[in-house]
Amino acid sequence: MRTALSPARTLSLAFLTLGGFVAGVMFWGGFNTALEFTNRPAFCIGCHEMRSNVFEELQGTIHHVNRSGVRAGCPDCHVPHEWTNKIARKMQASMEVWGHLFGTISTRERFLDHRRTMAEREWARMTANDSLECRNCHTAEAMDLTKQNPRAASAHERFLFTGERTCIQCHRGIAHRLPDMRGVPGWQ
To answer: Among 128, 122, 115, 130, which Cα is nearest to 182's?
Structure first.
């Protein structure tokens, strides 16, 4: 009678193992779905601060309108493609959500007041990772220096191919307007 009323130990272990596996797969699938949902330009411009400021600026740049029809969206330039770097960047981006919730850049004036700080933070991040996001699309091996103007070709040979500089150090303001850089050494 006692055996009939108590579950078998092997059956319980099998259900726990199977249940844990199914729960893990569901968690992982949900986590990746949420990660990819937040990795779309539509999500990025879901708040008016991004849509009305930096996204409007992107509209007229080579990264949005070009002869090849290829567009770079927000995550292409601001979120690394490798999983561990992507997770680290998403954790950093949570501070941007915090700024949205507390209105740090809620108006155009506030955005412009914080623009230089935000730009410098992004430039430092991209300098530290050797412009990884740029290099996901623009590889040195694929560059044809003969099709570049002589000044650009010379700069790429001198700085980029030697590792002396990285993309963002020369190409600031290529997708968004530069902040007010008055008072910064080296800027006109």
So the answer is: 115
pTM confidence score? 0.74
Q: What is the pLDDT of residue 8?
A: 61
- Apex CA 36: angle with CA 32 and CA 41, to 5°? 170
Shortest CA distance to 126 belongs to which of 78, 163, 76, 87? 78
Instruction: Give the model confidence (pLDDT) of 101-131 as tens digits.
Output: 888 888 888 888 888 998 998 899 999 988 8
What is the Cα Rg of the chain in Å?
Answer: 24
**Tokens coding 148:** 């570049």
Q: What is the residue-wise DSSP string for 134-171?
A: HHHH--GGG--GGGS-HHHHHHIIIIITTTSS-HHHH-
Q: What is the pLDDT of residues 43-82, one digit of tens each?
A: 888 887 788 888 888 888 888 888 878 888 888 888 888 8
Q: What is the distance between the alpha carbons of residues 72 and 165, in angstroms, rounded to a whole number?
A: 23
> Which has the closest alpha carbon to 51: 122, 110, 119, 108?
108
Question: Across the chain, how many H-helices and E-strands are there?
Answer: 11, 0
| CA distance linking residue 74 with residue 158, whole number of Å | 29
Cα–Cα–Cα angle for 125, 127, 128, rounded to 5 degrees: 65
Domains of the chain with CATH codes = 18-139 (1.10.3820)
